[in-house]
Amino acid sequence: MQQPPSASQSVAERVRSDVPGLPGPGRGRRDLLALVRQTFVGQYTVEGEIGRGGAARVFLAQDRSGRRVALKILRPECLASVATDRFLREIEFTARLKHPHIAELLDSGETDWLVYYVMPFVEGPSLRELISSRRQFTVADTLRIGCELLDALGHAHECGIIHRDVKPENVILSPKLGVVLLDLGIARAIISSITERITRTDVAVGSSAYMSPEQINASQEIDARSDLYAVGCILFECLVGRPPFVRRQEVVVLQLHLTEPAPDVRAFRPDVPPNLAAAIATALAKRPEERCQSAHEMQSILGNCAV
Questions:
Q1: I want to staple 284 with a disulfide (CB 3.0 to 4.6 A). Which of 103, 152, 187, 232 is the partner?
Q2: Are residues 93 and 131 located together in one domain of the fold?
Q3: Residue 165 designated active-site
Q4: CATH code of the domain covering residue 114
Q5: CA distances from residue 262 to 1, 8, 269, 281 in whole angstroms, order as listed
Q6: Which of 59, 88, 120 is the last residue of a domain?
Q7: What is the pLDDT along the chain (307 residues), one digit of tens a residue?
Q8: Domain for residue 4, yes or no?
């Protein structure tokens, strides 16, 4: 007979040991889709899995009104590091973000030991998909993407929320809305809810190709300028087809962010206007104080770049 969970047993430990569909001792991995469908009967109609990120697995679903949403289930690996109640409390901060270029938080909670959050499903390809297919964007398209992305980040920063994981996978190019930035506030919630037995340096938040030097150094002083560094990496990639630093080993990429000057975008794309190349170089400065000091400042500079 199965014993009830003890009061001291963490949600992550209960998930791993008791919930079918997630890995546990002596248990194979079963169909998580079936589990999610069963868990959210009457709340969400789950159509299928559409993505996997570092923090969550993503399912396309419909809410009771028939609206299509992205239902995101926090990965067990994340649950092992965070206090669930604190995570859910922190993620509610993102509900204050109301901006046309930000996917808003619609719902969040814990049910049957699955921790989830819900955002609108945004039609359109991700910036990652477009870079993979196009390789390079025009200067005009790059400026438009950069300005809309910075507009979204400026709003978030004014609300006290730093993204920490700005990357092409988190940017959707909607035919109706333009740039839509995903998962704002998720990294903040994870970092803020790390349990005492796990140090913050033990939990990786961010992607190596877009991480600022201060993130790599696990600085406690991460601020808006760290997101601007990531935007600089994205603008470089839109124009060149790859991020500023590319190596087979992730640890080498991180070291290059720390020690090597970013390459000049005009060495790869001579048609890039000098003022845009200078703006990207400023965003990729190693020291935060040498970058623009706000998203809106950087947006203004891009808006004045010649095409």
A1: 232
A2: no
A3: yes
A4: 3.30.200.20
A5: 61, 48, 14, 7
A6: 120
A7: 334 333 333 333 433 333 334 444 333 334 889 999 999 999 999 999 998 877 889 999 999 999 999 999 988 777 777 788 888 888 888 888 999 999 999 999 998 889 999 999 999 999 999 999 988 999 999 999 999 999 999 999 999 999 999 999 999 999 999 999 999 888 878 877 775 444 444 444 678 999 999 999 887 678 999 999 999 999 999 999 999 999 989 999 999 999 999 999 999 999 999 999 999 999 999 999 999 999 999 999 999 996 6
A8: no
64 located within any domain: yes
| Cβ neighbours for 271, distance < 8 A, ≥ 6 positions apart | 139
Domain stop point among 99, 120, 141: 120
CA angle (87, 64, 97) in 5-degree steps? 40
In a domain, 225, yes or no: yes
Candidates 18, 31, 85, 165; catalytic one: 165
Any idea what the Cα angle at residue 213 is, between residues 191 and 161, rounded to 5°?
A: 40
Q: CA 13 to CA 9: how far, in whole Å?
A: 6
* pTM for the whole structure: 0.84
